[in-house]
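Please review this one.

:::
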Amino acid sequence: MNKDIRSAFKDALILVVITLVSGLLLGLVNMLTEEPIRLQKEQAVVDSCKAVFPAGDYPSYELSFVLTDYRPSEALQSELLKNGVTVGNIYAAVSPGGMTEGFAIEVTSSEGYGGDIRLMCGVDTYGTLKGVSILEISETAGLGMRAESVLVPQLRNLNVDHITFTKVGKQAENEIDAISGATVTTTAFVNAVNASLDVFAEIAGKEAQHE
């Protein structure tokens, strides 16, 4: 084996060793970070569910949240898609005694001004919108990003079939004040919240059929 061949073989062997070591290190890092990331995501879901069923509304016990297998019908999904809304996971809010107190429903509007607006909406068994938590939003600073301070506080304990928004001051129970200068964001937000109410209505209808 001449010198050039030995050198090429050595270089190839070094590259193989570097590749193997790099792969092992990446695998180790992934293994070490995968579980904390999973737990962090699970905690974020629990926190958002708790935010839409405020503890102050249930002072005598603590709710737990259980992932359900509820999924909107194809007809409802098709209808919601007309407004750019899709439905994610649905969690049952369960009392210590095993009673379902409502549902935390994950909804996403793809029609925000800056991209997706993903929300968790809590609806109790009476059809009351208990609250809304923002999971993801990338709207314009000073405008659409004011959804947290302008829209969310208005969406507490509303017992209505649907909500709408106004730019001239709310005059009805099902109205909320829009974000000034951010009609696109407000529209996407309201459509997502209304989707959660539609999903709950369908769930309630199915539950009634089984009684």
Summary: The helical segments are 3-52, 74-81, 147-150, 183-210. The mean pLDDT is 89. The longest strand covers residues 85-94.
